[in-house]
Amino acid sequence: MAPELQNARKTDTVFRTENLNIYYGDFLAVRDITIEIHKNKITAFIGPSGCGKSTVLRCFNRLNDLIQSFHMDGKLFYRDQDLYAAEIDPVEVRRQIGMVFQKPNPFPKSIYDNIAFGPRLLGYKGDMDELVERSLKQAALWDDVKDKLKEMGTDLSGGQQQRLCIARAIAVQPDVILMDEPCSSLDPISTLKVEDLLQELKEKYTILIVTHNMQQASRASDRTAFFNVEANAKGQRTGYIVEYDRTEVIFQSPQEQATQAYVSGRFG
User: Fold this and answer.
1) Residue 240: what are its φ and ψ, rounded to 5°?
2) Which of these, 224, 258, 216, lies nearest to 244 by C-alpha position?
3) For residue 97, what are the contacts with CB-CB under 8 A and spacing of at least 6?
4) Mind listing the domains of the chain with CATH numbers?
5) pLDDT tens digits for range 90-111
């Protein structure tokens, strides 16, 4: 998969979905997702709890494969390749498409070894010291930790731990970074540092972020998808996209009444 992915990187459309339906067993969790994600942009997924934002996000690096009852129909293309084709290696997908989770999850290792872990696993042959330094600098963490690289990553503050996890994701040189509510457990100052970092990272990476913080979406993203949820007669809740556009359109002049109600705080 890797050579094909590298050859495909010239396109500006990084992901494209067509009528994507996501199921857990017989339960339809998310329906009819048709969306394009563009290169070197920050795309935010917003919407009320249970609307499928994280479920869709985890399809983009095949993390849902790890859930036994998961299956989907429709199409999901990465750089014009079917991401769920039989010959595609999910492990390689997760190298190209990194993930930062809601709660900072540094390994119980030194700061240095947190960054070096992935490259070592992949057989990196270059200068590891240089790679660690570069990754930490890209994550705006180098100045904080350069004199304590042998100390445990778990001893850092919450905001520093999340930036360490971002540096760890960067170290394997991905194409895309997925972020599932990366600031939800951080204080306001750490949140703003991460948001500033995103603006720097998008020069090199395509970023998708799930957030419940509408101010964060409006500040940090280039494009925003608003998800909502509907319930059937059995009370089962299925998510769907109401509207997807440039962030300023979604927050200042949305086309759908439901979007206007959500971004103005009238529901959700």
Assistant:
1) -160, 160
2) 224
3) 60, 61, 78, 174, 175, 176, 177, 178
4) 2-263 (3.40.50.300)
5) 988 988 999 999 889 999 999 9
